[in-house]
Specification:
about 230 residues
């Protein structure tokens, strides 16, 4: 499998497959493909896996694309302005990502739900109880919003992140939520009661834009029936 990520604010990835190779994505995730690619829509992982994907921000059905000839290509585009990041999953190396991050992956990569530990992390961590986990062996492509910053945390090193700015992190990183300290910070800081906390060791991927903040900026300009 070979790939090319292209585009600026709205990137896409074109994957070139050898005959018999396959990749999968959520239903409706494909942008274009060459004539030799065969598509098969299925409920990957059975009913339980399908409903788990819904909670983690993906579709009930998944689509698998298989090359019937050498060098067939299939292209997947991001749904929000940002970047596409490739992860090489292997046994013992897993990635946890925000809901809706999954773009496409090799067949040997397993997409599943990841439940954050503790009530605080789930209720106030900014991403909810449910995230996405990628395991198995192979390549997975994820979309991240805005610009992306990679950071390597040493054992015990901590970074506190505003809600929604966590795009992904290695499974060795501990994820939790901590209350903002100081009465004035809580009332006037604009960051809410809790910040997400990431503790090393491991690598984290942070994004500069969040979908919720983007929506807040756009909503005032959306015409309504009262002012149309």
């Amino acid at each position: 499998m070979r790939y090319k990520i292209f585009g600026d604010m709205m990137p896409a990835v074109t994957i070139q497959l050898d005959q018999g190779e396959s990749v999968y994505t959520q239903s409706g995730g494909m942008s274009w493909m060459t004539g030799g690619v065969k598509m098969d829509t299925n409920m990957r992982g059975g009913l339980g896996g399908a409903f788990g994907r819904i909670f983690s921000g993906e579709s009930l059905f998944m689509a698998t694309f298989t090359a019937t000839r050498q060098n067939d290509e299939v292209t997947f585009a991001a749904t929000m302005p940002g970047q596409i990041v490739k992860f090489n999953i292997r046994p013992g190396y897993e990635i946890i990502a925000q809901k809706g991050a999954f773009l496409c992956a090799e067949q040997s990569v397993e997409l599943s739900t990841f439940f954050t530990r503790g009530v605080k992390g789930g209720l106030f961590g900014g991403e909810g109880f449910i995230l996405q986990k990628f395991s198995g062996n192979g390549a997975v492509f994820c979309e991240m919003d805005g610009s992306v910053c990679e950071m390597d945390l040493a054992p015990g090193e901590v970074i506190r992140v505003d809600s929604g700015n966590i795009a992904a992190f290695e499974s060795s990183v501990q994820y939790s939520a901590e209350m903002v300290k100081g009465f004035k910070n809580i009332l006037f800081g604009g960051e809410g009661l809790f910040l997400s906390t990431l503790r090393g060791p491991g690598r984290v991927w942070l994004q500069t834009m969040t979908v919720s903040e983007l929506a807040k900026k756009i909503i005032p300009y959306v015409p309504t029936s009262g002012n149309s």
